Amino acid sequence: EKNITLDSATRIELSCRLDSKYSHLKSLQVTWKRGNETIEHISKTDDSRGIQLNIVDNSKLGSYYCTVKGEEGEISARFHLQVPHIEGREKPIIGYVGDGAIMICKSYGYTPIAWTWYMTNGTEQIAINDSLRADKYIINRVSANVTHLKILKLTKEDEDVYWCEATFELGKSKGKLKLKVLTLMVPLKPFLAIVAEVVSLVAIIFLYELYSKRKEKCAEDEREFDQIEQL
């Protein structure tokens, strides 16, 4: 299985070569397919079969299968032609209410024609552009391969999934980013919990000391009373 990344129109040759450890196989039949469509191979040697493809648009992208069938069974290989992959971010980006957040998308090794950012509204994706609240969203194309989306004055409503889309000559590719917006009380919660524990501990110690002193005073009063009785 092999992934082949293409960003622009090109002519490509895919070759399917049988490994030497299968040289004992006889009466081999080689077929190339894309889905249910059979493709004629144009090159043929004793151990190799190949096809040539003229990739002019994304309709030619997808999976191509080479199958070698013999008397003892068959072996298959897959070539997957795809546009460059835009990686998102697995961990959410953390921001705080009132602050700003910056999301970054990169294309490694390939230069997109254009970048587009989207925000999620339920099941719908809404494009973020100059007409969509310029006081809220700022998009910067830092370089040909890098784009930034800056969100100003965060609110809890900004907590959502965002997408960056890179447009190439042969198609589009998207990366996913998640924004999580916290209030200032969230980072204070562990501190407040510790403070509460310390206050509880101090109160327990204080009450214990108070109880001990009261108990000692009662014991002294009893001893003094016994001495008076004896006298």
From TrEMBL:
CDD domains per the UniProt record, alphabetical: Ig
GO-annotated molecular function: cell-cell adhesion mediator activity
Alphabetical keyword list: Immunoglobulin domain, Membrane, Transmembrane, Transmembrane helix
This protein's record includes keyword Membrane: yes
Transmembrane regions: 191-211
PANTHER family according to UniProt: BASIGIN RELATED (PTHR10075), EMBIGIN (PTHR10075:SF4)
Name used for this protein in its record: Embigin
Organism: Mesitornis unicolor (brown roatelo)
